Amino acid sequence: MKIMTAWWAVISTALVFSPGVMAGPEDFHSGGLIKGYGRFADVPTAKPLPADTHFKLAIDVVDGGVTGEVNSRFKIAAGFLNLQHANGIPPENVDIALVVHGTAHRDLLNDDAYGGKNPNAELLGILQGYKVKVLYCGQNAVSRDISPDDLLPGVEMTHSATTTHVLLQQQGYSLRP
User: Fold this and answer.
1) Which residues pair with 94 in a beta bridge?
2) Spatial contact of 77 and 128, defined as CB atoms under 8 Å apart
3) Whole-model pTM?
4) What is the pLDDT of residues 88-101, one digit of tens each?
5) Burial call 138-162: b when 16+ CB within 10 Å, e when fewer
6) Count of alpha carbons within 13 Å of 98, Cβ hemisphere only?
């Protein structure tokens, strides 16, 4: 038993104090593509990606953000774009779809419908500039009496979030739940 305890102490110490294992908030940055959004950490020991890599990512956005703050799920899209850009993958090789439903509906509303300045508008506009699709569940819209006129520019109304996820998967998108 003492041998196992000593062995475990050596292994856990090596893992904790190994170079590259210890990281903190200061190791994360937003990168050069979308400044101020989408933080990631560099991993210099990771195997490089081929420059012609193409990604198709669907991000499920069901939980609404904190009032007055940018939805963290939208930041994931920015972070993914920043990370790939930093690793030599051009933005045109990254297809992202944000599938929005649930309480996240509010994060798609224009300022009038939001009840003030929507903090998500700037990032969503930037993401759409990198051809990120913002797809809003029509079932959610009907249940909350939200019309297309209530939405930020570029938001596309779909039949349902489930239908949208199925169609995206058929098109080769990977789901980021």
Assistant:
1) 55
2) no
3) 0.85
4) 999 999 999 999 99
5) bebbeeeebeeebbbeebebbebbe
6) 34
